[in-house]
Amino acid sequence: MSDLNHLSLAVANTKLKAGEIKAGELLNDCLAAISNLDDNLHSLITSAATDAQLLAQAQAQAEASEERWQKGEPLSVLDGIPYVIKDSYCTKDIRTTAGSKMLDDFIPPYDATVVAKLSAAGAILIGKTNLDQFGHGSSTENSAYGPSKNPWDTKRVPGGSSGGSAVAVAADLCLFAIGEDTGGSIRQPASFTNITGLKVTYGRVSRYGSIAYASSLDTMGPMTKTVEDAALVLQVIAGHDELDGTSSFEEVPDYTANLTEKKSYTIGLPQEFFGEGVDPRIADLIKQTAAKLKEAGHTIKSVSIPVVKQALACYYIIAWAETSSNLARYDGIHYGHSVLKQGSTNSLYEVYAQSRAAGFSAETKRRIMLGTYVLSAGYYDAYYKKALQVRTAIVEGFKQAFTEVELLLAPVSPVLPFEFGAKSDPVAMYMADIHTTPINPAGVPSLALPAGFVEENGTKLPVGMQLIGPLFSETMLLNLGHWWQQLDQTHQQKPPLT
Amino acid sequence: MNPSLLTKEDTEHVARLARLALSEAEIEQYRNDLNAVLEVVNSLNEVPTTTLAVTAQVSGLQNITRVDAVGTELTRAEALANAPQNDGKHFVVPGVL
After folding, report:
1. How far apart are CA A143 and CA A141, in angstroms?
2. pLDDT band at residue A325 using 50, 70 and 90 as cut-offs
3. pLDDT value of residue A498
4. d(CA A347, nearest CA chain B) in Å
5. A57, A53, A66: which is closest to A26 by C-alpha?
6. Considering Cα of A478, then A471, then A410, then A114, what sign does the dihedral take?
7. Residues 268-327 of A with CB under 8 A from B
8. What strands, in cross-sheet order, belong to the sheet with A266-270?
9. Alpha-carbon distance A47 to A217, whole Å?
């Protein structure tokens, strides 16, 4: 058999259980797909197809998995399943760059908790995916290693910052990916590439070992071919972690137990997500989705969360402030890019300033400077403190909405996947985040899944929708999302790859 | 909020605080970028916040501690492995004073 890389996680697991396929075959088919397609798509920074160490590790894991399946003792539903992870997650002894020259030769001495959990579950790591460095971006154009290409139209971005992960799943280079969402970085690339992506409740999944962008906003989550697959992955990675002080003690429910139960929900369409600045074709597509949901027995209501209009500004101020603080550790002393490596005898300040200037991209430097500015004396109250107060209003705004409806349905992106270079103006790039950024300051979960396509110049471009729920409502979102994917087959369409 | 535009000196000050060595041309570029972007966030002014408390994080958790006991830590070699300059025992740094 070949082309096993096209399987969903759930189907692959069924076939492994039945003895129809072997972990080694799955691995080989994924590696073949990477070899065939990734020179063009560039989804991976480190790949088992080209990195001998990662390949050896993956092959050993596949062998061990086959033995376990033979004995009927799989470690979990993920045993033997090849996956890729955003290169912002530390992987022990495997190069981890965060997409930046700053960490070009960084080899972590430990695994992120998410990586350790997936490994303990038998999943097989086959690549570290491309990203906008340190999470700073919505297109992968801010990667020091070149952008990734959208498999639906290779002249267009796949979205970001988890663009590489999205491409790898969309192009069937793996069976699932792990991304990271701070202001939309899982949802927007999922929407741009016709896959499913889950931004979990803040604290649901451990952040330990994930290279931090904004510590009060960062969330770790699955990017998959189906909602069912997302539930299967979430089951493994969710849960309290002693190593992450912000990790939630909330019990992890069984995300798959009631996945197929048909429920009727009261769903809100938040007005502010459908107004000015949204491509009318996208707004229409989501409204058509709402109509189909209504036909199928759900209740659709219009709601309003006025503070959403200021949420982008609130998000960015907090994100810039927190990233300026988090990136202060890259000082050319402990690890990372350093002028000391070139035998510099400059002063301490110069070592810091020159190493940092050389290691970070312009966009990253811009965000560090914005963050430094909004935290600096004289401006702290006007910007950062103000943003934290607006954050309270956003938390309340969502709470209020969830007293009227059970969940919200909204577009993920106000624009279609755009061409490379189209948003080179920083303001334009930031404005493309208006639909995803309101969610993160509130900490609520959001499931992005395919809604349909819009044709532009003869090319089909994916459009995603997001289901937003109250804190820890992943079970509900996954239930509705899975049910939608039985009714609607958009997610099964594959990009036109040769 | 008084969104006064950043001057060259303001930008140099921020760069110094951020420990970023920037050329004259870069200072000017970032000055313009920062001013353009900060305009976008002025919309925060539209939200009345005088009675609102701050929300720094949404986990609802406070004072999460661990037992002060030695566990499995990095070895010295592991900790130094990525260091640009080390003498096998320490990170070597330029003089601080």
Report:
1. 5
2. very high
3. 57
4. 6
5. A66
6. negative
7. 307, 309-310, 312-314, 316-317, 324
8. A44-47, A124-129, A82-86, A176-181, A219-224, A196-199, A446-456, A459-468, A407-411, A266-270, A299-303
9. 29
Report pLDDT digits (tens) over A42-53.
999 999 999 999
Kindly state the tokens that stand for A436. 């995803």
Structure tokens at A295: 């036909």
3-state secondary structure of B73: coil
- How far is it, in rounded angstroms, from Cα A85 to Cα A165? 7
| CB spacing of A328 vs B42 below 8 angstroms | no
Beta strand pairing call for A407-411 and A459-468: antiparallel
Quote the pLDDT of residue B71.
Answer: 85
Interface test with A, best of B23, B39, B58 (most A CBs within 10 A): B58
DSSP-derived letter for residue A384 is I
Question: pLDDT by residue (tens digit) across A439-488?
Answer: 999 999 999 999 999 999 899 999 999 999 999 999 999 999 999 999 99
Task: Indicate if A86 belongs to the active site.
Answer: yes
- What whole-number distance in Å separates Cα of residue A47 and Cα of residue A53? 10
Whose CA is closest to B61, among A372, A203, A32?
A: A203
* Structure ipTM: 0.94
A82-86 vs A176-181, strand pairing mode: parallel
Query: Are the C-beta atoms of residues A99 and A45 closer than 8 Å to each other?
Result: yes
Burial of residue A382, with CB atoms counted within 10 A of its CB: 0-12 exposed, 13-18 middle, 19 or more buried: middle
pLDDT in tens, A144-185: 999 999 999 999 999 999 999 999 999 999 999 999 999 999
Q: Is B94 helix (H, G, I), strand (E, B) or coil?
A: coil
Give the DSSP letter string of A205-234.
B--TTBPPS-TTT-EEEEEESSHHHHHHHH
pTM over 0.90: yes
Residue B1 has pLDDT above 50, yes or no: no
Instruction: Classify A195 as helix, strand or coil.
Output: coil
Give the whole-angstrom CA distance, residue B72 versus residue A243: 12
- A positions 433-462 inside 8 Å of B (CB): 441-443
The torsion region of residue A307 among left (phi > 0), alpha (psi -120 to 50) and beta comes to alpha
Catalytic residue at A161? yes
Query: Are residues B91 and A345 in contact, defined by beta-carbon separation less than 8 angstroms?
Result: no
Q: In the predicted model, what is the mean pLDDT of residues A262-288?
A: 95
Residue with tokens 């007005």: A271
